[in-house]
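Troubleshooting log. The previous run stalled partway through. Resubmitting the same two chains, unchanged.
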Amino acid sequence: MRWEWSEVREMDDQGCPRCKTTKYRNPSLKLMVNVCGHTLCESCVDMLFVRGSGNCVQCDTPLRKSNFRVQLFEDPAVDKEVEIRKKVLKIYNKRDFDFSNLREYNDYLERVEEIVYNLTNNLEVEGTKQIMEAYQRENRDIIQKNKAKLTREQEELEELLLLEQQGNEQRRLETLQEEQRQLQAKRKSKQALLDELERSHVPATILLAQHKDRAAQLETQIEKQKQVVKTTIFSTGIPMGQTVSLLTVNRLEEVLYHYQPIHMHTYGPPVPELEQLGRLGYLNHVRTAQPQDMAGGYNSGLACHRAIQDAFSGLFHPLG
Amino acid sequence: MFHISSQKKYWTFDNEESLEQLRCEANQKYRNKMLASGKPGVSDAVFLEAHEENVLFRHYEKRLLDFCNAFKPVMPKSVVGTAIMYFRRFYLNNSLMEYHPRTIMLICAYLSCKVDEFNVSSTQFVGNLVQESAAGQERALEQILEYELLLIQQLNFHLVVHTPYRPMEGLLIDIKTRYPLLENPESLRKSVDDFLTRVTLTDSGLLFPPSQIAMTAILNSASRAGLSMESYLTECMGLKEDKETLLKMYDAMRRIKSLMKKYELPKPDEVNAYKVKLERVHADFGTNSNMKRKRGYEDDDHVAKEPRMTEEDCLLSMILRMVSLRAWWTKGVAVAFMYCSISVLASVVARNRVVASSGNHQREGTSHQPSVCVCVS
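Second attempt completed without errors. Output:
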């Protein structure tokens, strides 16, 4: 198995605090995190918590083996916070439409964050837990309602995902079948050609020409089939068959942009355009460009135009 | 282009009086500064008057012109024009007593070579100071580098100067194309060049757009040669109806010509007298900031060298670390050695890639190790 150098370095960094094995010595090593936020490798967990419960190595809090989860993040503190957040949000599950204005919602969120922060950093654990319990008691029915709503939404999402997956599967199978059919058709036509070459009395060249024709026809058929893709969505992204609300959308009136070309005041007579220079005869009086100059994209008109521009610029200054 | 340039916005003045005013103010400012500093021997008589400064200015300007003309390789005319313009602009806002024109002269030429993309190395430049020894040239170079930034600052960082040479070429092309009345414009070229060289020694560059100066030059040479070119302005430039602009053009041309007439080479005895005064002012009150600047340069070098050292350090440490680590490929330590040698080669690549490693050098070094890994395995 091959790893990137950066991954190898990281493997070296992380290690079990007890047995000091690191991931590079035993690549299949998994670190587990518990509620106190300290990590232990799988083997150490098995050893220490053989009886199901014990104390953490580093902070001596009583723990249970079942509370150990595989570490998802590099920093075990993050894992700990994620767990705590999940638990808190099970209770504090109000959503933005539950509040009458933005300020209240933000205040609510601030309270939630404070609770999570306190629990993660072990500040005022008791007080926070009491606050949580009080909230739970007061808003029991709201919590229930929201829980139900959440599960419903999740189910809907899952359904959509399932549908999409099924659609993908179907399409895949269809394309496979198509390919199979095409292969078979080709094989059949080849076989037919061989048979005809054997049996019929028509000269071989004509048979080959006929075969080629048929093969070309088959190709065009296949191409046409490919182009008939089933349209399932409109170009705007709305899937076919979905009911679209016919409420009027607010019209946005915007000011139309009018292009104004830039006008540069040169305080002098007008300069002829670069393209006109040849026609007007200016280029006769400029040194012709050598081949090595023209290779870089230079032509004598450029130098001529610049000289004329410089000559005319500011000639009528200071009035223009 | 001139019409959007900083030259038109900031360095084109209305009349000679405002220029005189600025020079007087610069002179006065220096005097006040010196008088306020209360150094011994300071009195009004010691300082140069504005008109005396003017004489010296013209003298050094001529010397600058001669220096540029004697320059090897041959300096293009626009470079010369730019150098003289820098010199003029600098002493519009500063007094000759504060910064000696001898040094500023050379710096103007040096900067102008750089700005106009006339590629001359610094050693080549000071090699043109034929009257000095090698050590003298070294010292001159140091001085140049010291004051270069000051010059740029006093020019207010407006480094692009529009000289009348290209407008002159453009007008000649235009005359050849649209004005067949004048048979051989090329015959005018020599006198036009002469005119333009003389005009750079006047204040015209600070008062008129370069295209007007070029036009004056051409019309003047034509009239000197007895050829009539009056209809050029009215017909080709479309000024037949626009009497006002035509009058203004004639007025401008007249003023340029009068400026040229007024110019005269400074008299040698006057120059010598004022030079003595100038030298005394510089000797007595000149600030010697050589020492400070030198240290500044050394510091710069030192700072520039440091990241290099840490780069090499980090790479060396990487290599050592590689050797000391157990090779976890099954191929063994021989691979680690091969890796070492490749890392040395990779250090060349690293030097190009890791420009300013801030923070974790090691991490920078690791970022391109995968590529080496791949070629090893």
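Takeaways: The two ends of chain B are 59 Å apart (CA to CA). The mean pLDDT of chain B is 79.
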